């Protein structure tokens, strides 16, 4: 099995709960021989119930009405229409994280609520870059939690990359400054900085992230080059609220979605693309270092639709 087919199998398996949910929501709709208004209404409701968003559900049913009305239709036909529409929504936002900063390093600030898989995602992103022959450094900027600092050190060791860290409670902006200084001195290609995720104190978090960004920009006017929000797919529609908050608080430039294998709510990624249009850089379907991969719209659309 090639790495690509292995990843495809993991993604399809990871999204099985979401595609099964779509399948069960469609069950029982195809009792009549031909597509009529009652069936179209049922299909639209099934798509909304599968977290795909009102806009996409409306477009799929409009397409079916235009192309298939009063003709034979089955679940496979609906799934194919769903996959095509999902791919159309996701294709414009499927953008890998490219290392384009000159001079180096590319500075990536990673944000997200505690528990979203942020720290492990940072290590997996580092692994992706190392696979592409880039040198990587990590910075444990979530100085509020000792566990976050220790966790990043452990994951950094697994990924084989150095981690810049300080004491718990140290100034996060000061740590970011030190890390960028070290990365520049070492000629590192990519610096990935962890940040605190305490949303319950939104104004404090906003001040801290603004300070981190100011300090980085003083040293390197173009930094940070990316502000990546890590989302936990199992939170479903709440992920959309998080995008809104972090976009306002941190100026998010792109998304990574984790834990797609643990939920039936994979459709929320489609709703997020539809609502915010932010680049989706990568998706994760497991705990392993290679379980986070660049986002491919067509592959994801087919897996989500159960094709």
How would you portray this structure in words?
Helix 3 runs antiparallel to helix 4, helix 4 crosses helix 5 and helix 10 runs parallel beside helix 11. The protein has twelve helices and eight strands. It is elongated, with a radius of gyration of 21 Å. The longest helix is centred in the last third of the chain and has 18 residues. It has two domains: 91 residues, Four Helix Bundle (Hemerythrin (Met), subunit A) (Up-down Bundle), CATH 1.20.120; 195 residues, P-loop containing nucleotide triphosphate hydrolases (Rossmann fold, 3-Layer(aba) Sandwich), CATH 3.40.50.300. An eight-stranded mixed beta sheet has the order 3-2-4-1-5-6-7-8, sandwiched between helices. It is α/β, with parallel strands linked by helices and 307 residues long.
Summarize the structure.
This protein is of the alpha/beta class. The chain has 2 domains: 91 residues, SRP54, nucleotide-binding domain (Four Helix Bundle (Hemerythrin (Met), subunit A)), CATH 1.20.120.140; 195 residues, Rossmann fold, CATH 3.40.50. The protein has 12 helices and 8 strands.
Order of helices and strands: HHHHHEHEHEHEHEHEHEEH
Number of domains: 2
Task: Give the percentage of residues in beta strands.
Answer: 5-15%
CA-CA gap between termini: 20 Å
CATH superfamily of the largest domain, please?
A: P-loop containing nucleotide triphosphate hydrolases
Oligomer: single chain
The CATH topology of the largest domain corresponds to Rossmann fold
Number of helices: 12
Biggest beta sheet summary: 8 strands, mixed
- Overall geometric form: elongated
Helix content: 40-55%
CATH architecture of the largest domain: 3-Layer(aba) Sandwich
Q: Under the CATH scheme, which class of the largest domain?
A: Alpha Beta
Q: Determine the mean pLDDT.
A: 90
Strand order of the largest sheet: 3-2-4-1-5-6-7-8
**Low-confidence region ranges:** none
| Radius of gyration computed on alpha carbons | 21 Å
The count of β-strands is: 8
Judged by helices, strands and strand pairing, the structural class is alpha/beta
